[in-house]
Design brief:
Layout: E1 8-10, E2 18-20, E3 23-32, H1 38-49, E4 54-60, E5 65-70, H2 77-86, E6 90-92, H3 96-132, H4 140-153, H5 157-168, H6 174-192, H7 200-236, E7 242-247, E8 250-255, E9 264-267, E10 276-281, E11 284-287, H8 289-292, E12 298-300, E13 305-306, E14 311-314, E15 317-323, H9 329-343, H10 350-381, H11 386-400, H12 403-422, E16 425-427, H13 430-435, E17 441-445, H14 446-450, E18 451-462, E19 464-465, E20 468-469, H15 472-483, H16 489-501, E21 510-514, E22 518-523, E23 526-531, H17 533-538, H18 545-556, E24 560-566, E25 569-580, H19 584-593, E26 597-601, H20 606-616, E27 620-622, H21 627-639, E28 644-648, H22 654-659, E29 662-666, H23 671-675, E30 679-681, H24 687-722, H25 728-746
Parallel strand pairs: 1-6, 17-26, 17-28, 26-27, 28-29, 29-30
Antiparallel strand pairs: 1-3, 2-3, 3-5, 4-5, 7-8, 7-9, 9-15, 10-13, 10-15, 11-12, 11-14, 16-30, 18-25, 19-20, 21-22, 22-23, 23-24, 24-25
Length: about 750
């Protein structure tokens, strides 16, 4: 699993100069396209660790990003980019849409290389069979040599470049091992031109097959990443990218990135606020939950600040842009994401843990075989068996190429990822497969994750009016009649409840909204006022201490209290709160059964947090947590030795999603939350978290099975090759058999719940 020619790096370059220990330090952030395994991480990290002026480097495989801290007086950012170019990478367009387009082009190119190598491999294999049957002539060996060189230098040429640059820096990885095996086959075949004991066809064909299988593993790995990226692209396309700017009374559309401080931007109902600003005209109710975590919409009027990323619920208003660029709320969140990325615990996935020792093991065994049959043979038997020594050395290198090992995780990922995709779950990396089964604590954001983010009626309390105890149905009917013309989320919740309950309501003759307080209406000649009790009290509505106590009790439970008055008398009280997802409690209980401790985190007040946590069965929670503090809470849990997952959907969740060992984004969330995550749930069901855990656990089990099966072939074949008696054709047969077994095992149905 490596990269192919044209594989590029997306550089989202963000140079931030800051003072640290009285010295100037710069940060270079790079988004790397096409990373396929932990060897890519170790290769890049190792290369930068040898670069003068580099203080620290953090590379994330799952998010394909690197953050380099360096001294600009010693090394420039161009030199740092040059390090990556020398490793065989190039620069990709930093724009997301362009990046996805280039990734698709890369997949097409990889497919072209795979088809080319398949044709070359088929031709080489056919010639080998003909030579085995005795149907041959002198030119056959030259044809085979041509096919081997065409494969290695054509579609396989990029692998040599990566192997060479890695080797120059003293880095051993799977690229090196591939080329050692491929050149061993080539060397063995060329030797056969002069030494009859070396089978020309066997060695040359194995050289072709090693390169072909490596390109196949590249293609398989790329399919996994491209499929997730294409799904992410569809999600990101739902996010607005433009703003309506008002200039000289005329509206023009402008890209959000082009906004300047002082620009007047018009925001209509249902639109997302494109930038931080201050309202200069109009008023509305704004849903800031995606930014602050608060579930209840906030009333805004001229002079109030608004935050980019919030949603305008109703009413049209104009804002004057107050912050852009690095000073904006979103840019601050990005900086917190960078910090979380830099501090996120690294993980070497299981495949690469095996390869870390397997690669040098093969090289040592190969050298040992040569020494034993040359110098050892001379010391023991007083004869130099050079032919056998060379044959054994080459055979070990040929047999040592771990094609099936390299495909163990991508195949399990494709199998498990396909099952997950059927359920609306996108698994973005092998790290998520490996880490998820070991999670000990799962942090769940409240708004939009545990709750629906929609308000619902929870309490209806009616009072005696004119010596008559009113029915609750009359209360909701009157409240719905008063609120039916309002677009406020609370009003919509009341009307929705009346409709679902089958209660009738009428439109008011007159209606007036008082932002931040409530409404006044005339219904069938009667004066109706609805709003918070403080507002009703100021309007001269008689409210007893008992009524205030009831309202306070509801507020203690995290509910919003609305009073409904008729002709200056309190008709009743309505309790409203954000509704809990239907599957929330079931999901929490399932987490506990798996030994995972659920922890709720929210920016809401403690009363609301305590109420929601109790309703879903969570005993551990954090309330009134700022966006930048969420990642810090996760770091605290990780420092205690916990492996932590995070589930969220808002902009304010992005740093925490990045910091967590496994970040899980609800797919209806923001693009930055999606980009910061390892797993994406495209729907709103919380139960999908459990399904993704079960699939990841099953896929990880498949990966371990695949590794065991693959290692059996290599583990038996390498010692056999070291004897100098193993024909190279057996290496090719072992490759075909091992890949076939791993492929079959990957797609056998065994994803059982445990």
């Amino acid at each position: 699993m490596t990269l192919y020619p044209g594989t590029t790096l997306t550089f989202v370059i963000m140079e931030i100069m800051e003072s640290e220990n009285s010295n100037k330090m710069a940060k270079l952030q790079m988004k790397i396209g096409g990373m396929s395994c932990s060897f890519c991480v170790s290769t890049i990290t190792h290369a930068y660790s040898k670069q003068k002026g580099v203080m620290d480097v953090n590379v994330s495989l799952s998010h394909e990003e690197a953050l380099v801290k360096y001294d600009p007086s010693v090394v420039s950012d161009d030199e740092l980019k040059g390090v990556l170019k020398n490793l065989g990478y190039t620069i990709r367009d930093p724009k997301k849409v362009k990046a996805f387009e280039e990734q698709k082009a890369e997949l097409r190119l990889a497919k072209k290389y795979l088809l080319t190598t398949s044709v070359l491999a088929l031709g080489a294999f056919t010639m080998m069979l003909l030579m085995w049957t005795g149907f041959t002539f002198a030119a056959f060996k030259w044809f085979l040599l041509t096919l081997a060189l065409a494969t290695m230098l054509g579609p396989g040429g990029h692998i040599k470049k990566k192997a060479w640059y890695a080797l120059k820096r003293g880095i051993l990885n799977q690229h090196n091992l591939l080329e050692f095996g491929a050149f061993a086959g080539l060397a063995g075949g060329i030797t056969g031109f002069f030494v009859s004991s070396f089978p020309i066809a066997d060695f040359l064909v194995v050289s072709v097959f090693i390169t072909s299988y490596h390109i196949l593993s590249e293609y398989v790995s790329l399919i996994v990443r491209t499929r997730a990226s294409q799904a992410i692209e569809r999600l990101l396309d739902l996010q607005p990218k433009t703003a309506t700017v008002v200039e000289n009374g005329r509206e023009t559309t402008r890209n959000v990135e082009e906004l300047k401080i002082g620009d007047i931007v018009r925001v209509r109902p249902g639109e997302r606020i494109p930038a931080d600003g201050r309202i200069v005209r109009g008023y509305s109710t704004i849903d800031e939950s995606i930014v602050t975590g608060e579930s209840l919409p906030v009333e805004k009027s001229p002079g109030n600040e608004v935050v980019g990323g919030s949603i305008n619920m109703f009413g049209s208003f104009d804002i004057s842009v107050t912050r852009t660029g690095k000073d904006s709320f979103l840019s601050q969140i990005v900086r917190h994401v960078e910090e979380a990325r830099a501090l996120k615990p690294s993980i070497l996935i299981i495949v690469d843990r095996v390869l870390k020792y397997f690669v040098p093991g093969v090289l040592i065994t190969s050298a040992g075989a040569f020494l034993f049959w040359s110098l050892g043979s001379y010391l023991l038997f007083d004869t130099w068996d050079i032919d056998r020594a060379i044959f054994a050395m080459l055979a070990v290198l040929v047999m040592g190429y771990p094609c099936a090992l390299g495909m163990a995780m991508p195949l399990a990922l494709i199998s498990g990822g396909g099952k997950a995709a059927e359920r609306g779950i996108l698994l973005r990396s092998g790290e998520a497969f490996q880490l998820f089964p070991g999670i000990k604590k799962m942090i769940l954001d409240k708004t939009g994750t545990i709750t629906k983010g929609d308000l619902e009626i929870t309490d209806l309390i009616s009072y005696v009016l004119d010596k008559t105890k009113l029915d609750k149905t009359e209360l909701i009917s009157l409240a719905a009649s008063a609120e039916v013309l309002s677009e406020h989320p609370i009003a919509r919740a009341i009307v929705r409840y009346a409709v679902s309950s089958g209660e009738s309501y009428t439109k008011p003759e007159r209606f007036k909204v008082l932002p931040g307080n409530g409404i006044k209406a005339i219904i069938e000649g009667h004066s109706i006022i609805a709003g918070n009790l403080s507002f009703l009290n100021k309007e001269g509505i008689g409210i007893t201490e008992e009524m205030f106590a009831t309202a306070e009790d509801l507020a203690e439970k995290g509910k919003t209290v609305i009073g409904v008055a008729k002709e200056k008398k309190l008709f009743g009280i309505i309790g409203i709160s954000d509704s809990i997802k239907d599957d929330a409690r079931e999901t929490i209980e399932a987490l506990k059964r798996y030994g995972i401790t659920p922890v709720m985190i929210t920016g809401d007040n403690r009363k609301t947090a305590s109420s929601v946590a109790a309703r879903v069965g969570i005993t551990e929670y954090y309330a009134e947590v700022l966006p930048e503090e969420k990642a810090g809470k996760i770091r605290e849990l990780q420092a205690e030795g916990n492996r932590v997952a995070m589930v969220g959907d808002g902009i304010n969740d992005a740093p925490a999603l990045m910091q967590a060992d496994v970040g899980i984004a609800i797919g209806t969330g923001t693009d930055i939350a999606i980009e910061s995550s390892d797993i994406i749930i495209t729907g709103r069901s919380l139960k999908s978290v459990i399904e993704s855990f079960e699939i990841a656990k099953g896929s990880y089990r498949k990966t371990k099975q695949n590794l065991l099966l693959a290692f059996l072939f290599n583990g038996i074949g390498i010692p056999a090759a070291a004897t100098g008696l193993l024909n190279p054709s057996w290496a090719m047969a072992a490759m075909v058999a091992s890949v076939s077994v791993v492929l079959l095992n990957s797609f056998l149905p065994s994803f059982k719940k445990s």
